[in-house]
Design goal:
Length: 234
C-alpha cells in the first residue's frame, strides 16, 4: 500500500476493490454487496426512508454504499467524498442519479457548515491515524445541520473472525481497528451526543443459518458482533 502520511489511500486497490473484498468475505457466506446493503438497512431502523435528506457518504470508496443509500432513500440527495481519486473514478462509473462524488484532501470536508441531515461512514476510521479522529469528527460535526445524524460503521476487533478477515485482507494491511470503547470515548470527547452503539452480524450468512437471522435484532447490545456502529447527533 502507498502509505500516505496520515491515512490509507486506496488508489492502488480501486480497480479490483470489489473482487478483493468479495474474496476476503467469502467464508461469511455473503458477498461485499450484502455487507454494503445491510448497513443501509440498519439506517432504516432510525430514519424515515421517504425524507428528502441531504446525505454525505464520507470515505465513499467506489460508491457502493451510496448506491444502496439511493435505493433505500429514493428522495435523498447524496454526496460521496474520498481521498482516493481512483476510487472516485470507479464511483462515477456507476452513473448514479442524485449522487455526486468528489475527491478531497482527507482533512477539510469540501462543504459549508450545517449542510447535511446525515453523514454515513463505513469502514473508514480504521484507515485514518487515530490521532486525527478528533479533527475529522470536528469536520463531520461542522457540515451537519443541528439535529443532524452521524452513523459510523466499524469492524469489531473483539470478534476473532473479524480479526482473521482483516488480517488476511490486502487493503487492510495498515488498518488499526477501533475498539468500541475507544470509539465511544472519541464521540464523548467531541461535541456530538452519542445516541447508540449497536453491534451487528452475529451469524454466518450461509443458507443453514437463514432461519435464525431475525434473532440478530435482539442482540444489538452484545459486544461480539462482527461489526458495530455508533449513532451520534449534533
Ligand atoms: C475500506 S474502504 C471503505 C469504502 C466505503 N466506505 C465502503 O464501505 O465500501 C476505506 C476508504 O476510506 C478512504 N479513506 C482513507 N482515509 C480517508 C480520509 N481521511 N477521508 C476520507 N476517506 C478516507 C479510502 O480511500 C477508502 O476508499
Amino acid at each position: 500500500m502507498t502509505k500516505n502520511r496520515d491515512f490509507d489511500n486506496f488508489d492502488e486497490f480501486a480497480k479490483d476493490y470489489r473482487d478483493t473484498h468479495d474474496k476476503s468475505v467469502e467464508m461469511s457466506g455473503a458477498d461485499s454487496d450484502y455487507f454494503s446493503e445491510y448497513k443501509i438497512i440498519e439506517l432504516l431502523k432510525h430514519e424515515d426512508t421517504l425524507n428528502p435528506l441531504k446525505i454525505l457518504d464520507f470515505g465513499c470508496g467506489d460508491g457502493n454504499s451510496s448506491r444502496y443509500i439511493l435505493k433505500h432513500f429514493p428522495n435523498a440527495t447524496i454526496y460521496g467524498i474520498d481521498v482516493s481519486e481512483e476510487s472516485i473514478a470507479q464511483a462515477n462509473q456507476k452513473g448514479l442519479s442524485n449522487v455526486a462524488f468528489k475527491s478531497f484532501n482527507g482533512a477539510d470536508i469540501p462543504f459549508g457548515d450545517n449542510e447535511f441531515d446525515l453523514v454515513f461512514t463505513s469502514m473508514v476510521f480504521h484507515h485514518i491515524e487515530h490521532s486525527l479522529h478528533q479533527e475529522i469528527l470536528k469536520e463531520i460535526y461542522r457540515v451537519l445541520k443541528i439535529g443532524g445524524r452521524f452513523y459510523n460503521f466499524e469492524h469489531n476487533p473483539n470478534n476473532p473472525l473479524t480479526r482473521k478477515v482483516v488480517n488476511e485482507c490486502p487493503f487492510d494491511e495498515d488498518a488499526v481497528l477501533l475498539k468500541p470503547s475507544y470509539h465511544k470515548s472519541i464521540i464523548d470527547k467531541s461535541e456530538f451526543n452519542l445516541v447508540k452503539l449497536n453491534y451487528t452480524l452475529f451469524l454466518p450468512r450461509h443458507k443453514l443459518f437463514k432461519l435464525f437471522l431475525p434473532t440478530e435484532k435482539l442482540l444489538s447490545w452484545c459486544p461480539i458482533g462482527a461489526q458495530y456502529y455508533i449513532k451520534a447527533i449534533k
